[in-house]
Specification:
Layout: H1 3-29, H2 35-55, H3 62-65, E1 79-85, H4 92-99, E2 109-116, H5 122-132, E3 136-141, H6 148-157, E4 164-168, H7 178-189, E5 193-200, H8 207-230, E6 240-243, H9 244-249, H10 260-270, E7 275-285, H11 291-316, H12 323-352, H13 360-379, H14 392-401, H15 405-418
Parallel strand pairs: 1-2, 1-4, 2-3, 5-7
Antiparallel strand pairs: 4-6, 5-6
Helix pairs in contact: 1-11, 1-12, 1-15, 2-8, 2-13, 4-5, 8-13, 8-14, 10-11, 11-15, 12-13, 12-15, 13-14
């Protein structure tokens, strides 16, 4: 991707930021008649579509999660598992041992661990494991190879031979029969890609890990509902299965983005490839355990989320996707990225001009929908509990926890508008505890 493209991202970030600030400012500067009723109408539309999306989960049929029969070993496809690992000495041995214990024909399963320039004991551990597991494929890259996680995955693609690819993080944990059930789901839905619901292994560690567990469940609720209503769904990096030929046709993993999964999700949508969402069995992973790590992670997610819309926005407004998909993408783009900026500057202008906030009904609506999804995601049937002890007070606190996005999104957008971006893979520390 050219340097001019980065400048284009920067310009689009500035335009988006300016437009959001202008939307926040105009009602304070001009007395627009009946503007508050317009806000209430928009809030009603947001509630209606949001509850429609969530309600689709109430009818989630077990037939869509597991096939009526177990797929035979003869029917199972050749599968390559890819894990990009950098400085993962705490978890890599556990991952490899568990992968080789999965219920899947050994002659149809290849496991590739990409040592992406690790500076800790990861290379030594992988060397020992390669002697222990004859079929373990260790692929090594130099520390300055570039491209981050996407670069590591793309480099490993040249060694793969399978029809399907399963991308996992180094801290991933799967149930022993996860692969069999995953392909049962593929057979029923005829998907081009499937995202396993993500769940948290260290849910009871502290308040932040409990909130992240509920947030992952909430995300799966929305993703499943969006898929059912409009045909829009997204990959989440860890636990994503994709047909290799579909991936190659879409241009493989984008090395010029900080979130390869979100970028690939839009390219799959534009190519009319379907992404299925599988609730159970989930892929389990560690949640970050402190505020600094959380904010660093969320800044990367926010930046990657915005990058994809800036990169493919012109294609999204064409006829490559239908009107309902355009509405769904616009709806969630506004709620996830525009609303936090508008709300913050609405508050700033209210304080500066001694005026009342104007957009609070929309913000309140967004938090209410999140609370409903939190509640349902925490209480609906799940093989891995979302919370150790469900209670209404915890759900209320978790909704408040979501307010960190109202700080992260404006801050990231401002940075993207001002500073040139150097693509860096800032990995999340995995403790293995």
């Amino acid at each position: 991707m050219s340097k001019g493209f980065y400048k284009n991202r920067r310009l689009k970030s500035f335009i988006f930021l300016s437009a959001s600030i202008l939307v926040a400012f105009i009602p304070h500067a001009y007395n627009i008649e009946n503007f508050f009723y317009i806000i209430l109408t928009l809030s009603f539309v947001i509630v209606f579509y949001g509850l429609t999306v969530i309600s689709r989960n109430f009818k989630r049929n077990n037939v869509l999660n597991t096939a009526s029969r177990r797929i035979s070993n003869k029917e199972l496809p050749l599968l390559d598992i890819l894990v990009a690992a950098r400085d993962e000495e705490n978890v890599i041995a556990r991952l490899v041992e568990r992968l080789f214990n999965l219920d899947y024909p050994t002659n149809k399963l290849n496991i590739y661990i990409i040592d992406d320039g690790s500076s800790d004991k990861t290379p030594l551990i992988l060397d020992r494991l390669s002697n222990q597991f004859e079929k373990l494929n260790v692929v090594s890259r130099s520390p300055n190879a570039g491209g981050g996680k996407s670069g590591a995955l793309n480099y490993a693609l040249q060694f793969t031979h399978g029809e399907w690819l399963l991308v996992l993080d180094a801290d991933a944990q799967l149930k022993q029969d996860s692969l069999i059930r995953l392909f049962n789901f593929v057979e029923v839905g005829d998907w081009s890609a499937v995202q396993l619901r993500k769940s948290v292994t260290n849910v009871s560690k502290n308040f932040l890990t409990s909130c992240q567990s509920m947030e992952m469940a909430m995300d799966a609720i929305f993703q499943y509902g969006r898929l059912s209503v409009s045909g829009v769904s997204e990959l989440r990096g860890n636990g994503q299965l994709i047909k290799k030929d579909i991936l190659l046709a879409c241009g493989s993993f984008n090395e010029d983005t900080v979130t390869d999964d979100l970028d690939l999700s839009l390219r799959l949508l534009l190519s009319k490839s379907k992404i299925g969402i599988l609730w159970d069995p989930p892929v389990m992973e560690e949640a970050v355990e402190n505020l600094n790590a959380l904010l660093a992670q969320r800044q990367r997610w926010a930046e990657g989320g915005l990058q994809r819309f800036f990169d493919y926005g012109d294609q999204l407004v064409t006829n490559k996707i239908n009107y309902l998909q355009k509405f769904d993408l616009s709806y969630f783009f506004i709620l996830q990225y525009a609303l936090p900026i508008i709300s913050i500057f609405d508050l700033v202008f209210s304080i500066a001009l001694l005026d009342a906030p104007i957009y609070w009904p929309i913000s309140l609506t967004a938090f209410m929908l999140s609370g409903v999804a939190f509640w349902y995601g925490s209480y609906c049937k799940s093989e891995v509990p979302v919370l150790q002890k469900e209670n209404f007070f915890m759900i209320f606190l978790s909704v408040f926890y979501l307010s960190h996005w109202f700080l992260v999104i404006p801050w990231v957008t401002i940075k993207m508008s001002i500073f040139p971006k150097k693509i860096l893979w800032r990995k999340t520390l995995h403790t293995g505890v």
